[in-house]
Design goal:
Layout (H helix, E strand, L loop, with lengths): L1 H6 L1 H5 L11 H4 L8 H17 L2 H166 L8 H10 L1
């Protein structure tokens, strides 16, 4: 510990403390030239020689004073270092403050843009909600109309099916009636042929009978009309 004290003594003596106790002349002599290593060695030797001649209380006092000087020098060195760091920190804080102000301005601008976008988005959401509501109403209306049309189509399909069934039944009945009428016409034509044949036979028989009757009548009337001219007799035959 004493060796480290003598190595740091030169740095401590550069900044003497005004409240420090007086030290022997042999210890203060080398303080005027702290940069010379030869003088430091001689000063250390003088201090060692001086300390050898002092008693224990004086040595303790000198050691305490030297500790105080060393602590003061270390404190001042630390103070200078901290002052430099403080100045550097202040400049850095100023730069950070400027950056912070710029960032705050940018943030304010961005917040304004965000508010405008949120307002636009809210308006679009309102429009979208209105469009969705209109779409739902239209969809409900179209669904109701579709259901109504479906019911109407089902009813019309049922009516059409009934009409088709009736049409099919009527077509079947018509076809049956046509077949029946064709059969009846065929029978009637056959009967008509038979009747014509019978009529022709009857007409021929009637003509034959008429001729026989006329001939018989003419024969029976000849004796009564012998004096009549032949023309009259021909007319009588023609009338029969």
């Amino acid at each position: 510990m004493a060796g480290s004290f003598f190595r740091k003594k030169d740095a401590a003596e550069r900044t003497p403390s005004p409240g420090a106790a007086p030290v022997p002349q042999a210890e203060e002599a080398p303080a005027g030239e702290p940069d010379s290593s030869g003088h430091n060695d001689s000063a250390a030797g003088l201090i060692s020689a001086g300390k050898a001649q002092l008693d224990k209380k004086s040595l303790d006092l000198i050691f305490a004073v030297e500790q105080m000087i060393q602590a003061r020098a270390h404190a001042e060195s630390s103070n200078y270092e901290l002052q430099d760091r403080l100045n550097h920190s202040n400049s850095h804080i100023e730069r950070l403050g400027k950056d912070l102000r710029n960032l705050n301005k940018v943030i304010e601008d961005r917040e304004k843009d965000i508010l405008e976008l949120e307002q636009r988005l809210a308006e679009k959401n309102l429009k979208m909600d209105q469009v969705l509501e209109d779409h739902r109403e239209l969809q409900d209306t179209m669904s109701a109309k579709a259901d109504e049309l479906k019911s109407t189509i089902d009813l019309e399909q049922q009516k059409y099916a009934k009409l088709m069934q009736k049409h099919h039944e009527a077509h079947v009945d018509k076809h049956k009636r046509i077949i029946e009428l064709e059969d009846r016409i065929s029978r009637l034509e056959t009967e008509n042929g038979h009747l014509r044949q019978k009529y022709e036979t009857v007409r021929q028989e009637k003509a034959y009978l008429s001729g026989m009757i006329s001939d018989f009548t003419s024969r029976m009337t000849v004796p009564f009309s012998a004096g009549s001219p032949p023309a009259e007799r021909n007319e009588e035959y023609g009338d029969t």
